[in-house]
Design a protein that fits this description.
This protein is α/β, with parallel strands linked by helices. It has two domains: 36 residues, no CATH class; 283 residues, Rossmann fold. 37% of the residues lie in helices and 18% in strands. Helix 5 crosses helix 6. The longest helix has 15 residues. The chain starts with a helix and ends with a helix.
Length: 328
């Protein structure tokens, strides 16, 4: 990477250095330099935190910048995760449009729902409020639980969605998914999030679920800290409401979306080593969605945006850049 920075020389070297911070893979960084994308990075400090009012809650998203006149990406994280799950994918999408990463209610910096009201129907409403705030149609990209929510959004918010990307998300829970939900509900009993003594404890306690990943130790620690906060009493805690894991108690389930009714172009991505979404299930989803493509992301377990962000971003970019051709 340093050699790329030195290639620019003079005043350009500073811009190259800034770009290198946000392009975690050399190939995408080199492409950004060669193509001269001025929208590659919004600011040296990274994305801008923004808030909006949605369904009576103060909801948060990360604004990575980019040209909204081209298109707008809205990125949805999985359960018990947060908007920073997309930190290594989002910068590579910026040259191709405006990039937004949402914190679902009860996650990240978004407000908790009191009394608890979580689950697909609530999350769909929050996505709808965000689309209304942005006042534009979006390319909706959802990972894991976010991908399941995105499927419902495609049916309930169809007028606001240009295209859909489903990243390692099931159509109905496979056995392992059901076991994880049962474990999450047990952990949520009591509704109080555990407090830890230090940020070091946050790092030690943080685990991906399921645990398979190619994420480096350094990025794992970074992800853990971005999803935590220090409390007024000096202790630390993860930024999510434990009640988000017991949403079946607070919401009537929507059931399975009818994939045959999804009308917009759809890309289905699966981690080649995913523990949650089988190749058979992903291909069945492709057969049911009328206008769809299916791709596997190599060197990726379930947490595809973390394990292989470059391949994830490239697949999304190739898909959206071909939308015009598909429409004829």
């Amino acid at each position: 990477m340093q050699s790329l920075v030195n290639m620019r020389g003079g005043r350009g070297s500073r811009r190259a250095t800034v770009l290198s911070v946000y392009y975690p893979c050399e190939r995408s960084f080199r492409i950004a330099i060669m193509m001269g994308h001025e929208q590659a990075v919004t600011a040296e400090a990274g994305p801008t935190s923004r808030f909006f009012e949605g369904n009576g809650l103060r909801l948060h998203y990360l604004d990575w910048g980019g040209d909204a006149a081209r298109r707008t990406f809205v990125l949805l994280h999985g359960g018990a995760a947060h908007a920073h799950w997309w930190d290594y994918v989002a910068p590579m999408l910026v040259p191709y449009g405006h990039v937004i990463a949402l914190d679902f209610r009860g996650h990240g910096r978004s407000q908790w729902s009191t009394p608890p009201h979580y689950g697909p129907a609530a999350y769909v409403k929050d996505v709808g409020a965000l689309i209304e705030t942005l006042a534009t149609r979006v390319v909706l990209v959802g990972h894991s639980m976010g991908g399941a929510v995105a499927q419902w959004c495609a049916l309930m918010l169809a007028d606001g969605i240009e295209a859909l990307v489903i990243v390692d998300a099931p159509h109905g829970p496979p056995p392992l998914w059901r076991r994880l939900q049962w474990r999450w509900r047990r952990r949520a009993q009591g509704g109080k999030r555990p407090e830890l003594k230090s940020s070091a404890d946050i790092i030690r306690k943080f685990r991906l679920s399921p645990p398979g990943t190619y994420l480096t130790k350094e990025r794992m620690e970074e992800l853990a800290l971005k999803g935590a906060e220090q409390l007024p009493n000096g202790n630390w805690a993860f930024r999510f409401d434990p009640e988000t894991r017991s949403w079946r108690k607070t919401e009537t389930p929507l059931g399975r979306p009818n994939l045959r009714r999804i009308t917009m172009p759809t890309l289905i991505l699966r981690g080649a080593e995913s523990e949650l979404v089988s190749r058979r299930l992903a291909r069945r989803m492709k057969r049911r969605i009328p206008v769809s493509e299916y791709r596997e992301i190599p060197r990726a377990f379930h947490h595809v945006p973390l394990d292989n962000p470059e391949a994830t971003a490239n697949a999304i970019i190739e898909f959206v850049e071909g939308l015009g051709a598909r429409r004829g």
